Amino acid sequence: MGSTRKREFECQVVNEQVWIRLRKRRTAGLQSPRVYFVECDQSECQHVDSNEPPCPLNRSLFEEEIQAREESARLRSDEQD
Asked: Which of 12, 54, 51 is nearest to 35 (CA)?
């Protein structure tokens, strides 16, 4: 599961509605920890892909989804053991 469906978000940095989604950063190795970030469709924004202030995007916007993903991964891991 690499990304989620897009959702609208009112961005104060660009003063308009943008589309965001949760993404998983590609990391080395299958056993590496999951690193999530929030992706925005405004590629011209100087804060794109930073998820740090003044960018208002952060993982807490998708906290429920992250928890569901982690639980799903844990269940799959338990099934394999």
From this structure: 51
